[in-house]
Amino acid sequence: MNKNPFKNMKVSVKIYLLIILFINILSLNTQSQENITNRDRLYFGGSFSLMFGTYTQIELSPYVGWRFTPEWSVGGGGIFQYYGSSAAWGKYNTAIYGSNLFTKYTIVRDFPSKNMSLFAYSGYEALSLERKYFKSGNETGRFIMHSVLIGGGLRQYLGGRASAEILILYNINQANISPYSSPTIRIGLNF
Q1: pLDDT-based confidence at 52, cuts 50/70/90?
Q2: Confidence (pTM)
Q3: Which residue from 43, 113, 165, 180 could staple onto 188, CB 3.0 to 4.6 Å apart?
Q4: Domain region containing 130
Q5: What Cα–Cα distance (Å) separates residue 119 from each residue in 88, 106, 111, 169?
Q6: What is the pLDDT of residues 142-170, one digit of tens each?
Q7: How far is it, in rounded angstroms, from Cα 171 to Cα 116?
């Protein structure tokens, strides 16, 4: 048994901070000369994901973000998930909730076609899980699971401030207790 339960979390947070630093350096070197108003810097959105099968997961995640440059933004939000299992060894359902922080960096605009862009994503999530479903034994109560997700996606500009995104994310500190499959696919809308 791991004597220091925070060891993996410390490593994950260090990796996440290195990713943010790398993206910041990229954004400083490639800042566009476009002027962005404060109204255009602030954006709202949300993502959802669906997974069906032996395990069912339905996620809704509203968020708010801030564009520091036309290419780079950071944000945060809430997460709510319904998670269920229909496996032969145990049928159950539970609520998972928490919060996240993320950063997005647009790598290429008008790719693969006009009004689309390719972007990189990294994020940190803290989720509250029920022990009886995600830990071994007969423990009760909840615990916090920390996840670092990295990946990327495509953004389709819909007109005005609106855009739709599809992301493919990998949990780089994947644990046996994680409710995520790897990769995880999310669909999001921004306004």
Answers
A1: confident
A2: 0.76
A3: 165
A4: 7-32+43-190
A5: 40, 4, 10, 12
A6: 999 999 999 999 999 998 889 999 999 99
A7: 25
The β-bridge partners of 53 are: none
Q: What are the tens digits of pLDDT across the range 65-78?
A: 999 999 999 999 99
DSSP conformation class of 88 = T
Does the residue 124 lie in any domain? Answer: yes
CA 34 distance to own-chain centroid? 27
Residue 38 lies in a domain: no
Q: Are 164 and 188 in contact (CB under 8 A)?
A: yes
Q: With CA atoms as reference, report the closest residue to 185 among 149, 158, 156.
A: 149
First vs last Cα of the chain: how many Å apart?
Answer: 46
The residues, ordered by sequence, that sit 6+ positions from 6 with a Cβ below 8 Å of its Cβ are: none
- Nearest in space to 68 (alpha carbons), one of 104, 119, 22, 111: 104
In angstroms, the CA 70 to CA 166 distance is 19
The residue assigned the tokens 């609520």 is: 95
Does residue 75 belong to any structural domain of this protein? Answer: yes
| Residue among 36, 116, 24, 37 at smallest CA distance from 74 | 24
Element (H, E) at 187: strand 184-190
